[in-house]
Write a structure and sequence with these properties.
single chain; alpha/beta; four-stranded antiparallel β-sheet
Length: 230
Amino acid sequence: MQQSVELSVEDLLVRGERDRALLSLDRLVIRPGETVGVRGPSGAGKSTLLYALAGLANIAQGHVRWGEQELSAMGEEARARFRRHSIGMVFQDFLLFEELDALSNATIATGYMHVSLHEGLRRRANAILQRLNIAETRRRTIASFSGGERQRVAIARALAHGPAVILADEPTASLDRKVADLLIDDLVRLVRQEKRTLIAVSHDAHLHERMDRIIDIEDGRMVGETYNDV
């Protein structure tokens, strides 16, 4: 399991189609193990920031550093390798395989791991599923799961290979209020217990209340930040 590292972003410019600037960020530092919410209106650049931090956006200039690793200077293959080992991602739409059970989905990383590591990943994924109150992992396929259960499986998948950071894009948007609040509790508890860094893009004020810090993005720029007493 990897140790969390500091994130440092400097003079970041991300461009989209027709060379349009999507995100311009002078400086951002996120400490190891910090939980950070990113909020702002639709189209403000929140998800673009998340994808830039994962090496999935077109970085026109600037630096994205995870510890000693300069993500913005890596080639495509190196960035993909970095994501596989260092980043766990949670999406609004879960992105699970409907025909597989919970454990199979949570251990999908075995597809790029050496066979000697498979059993350890399965044990860890199963333990996380149990902590998230997902039982009967071999009897039910994802097609039978509720939205809240699916997102718990997605969280287990993101954490199972022991990444340094979890990036979450609107993790509660598909859930009703009660289910979303329970999920927030479980997600925050797990990342703090495991000393992972969490960066979550969300419109959910309940989620932001549980973060150490909230970053406000408007028109592709960081316009403010708030620290919570958590």
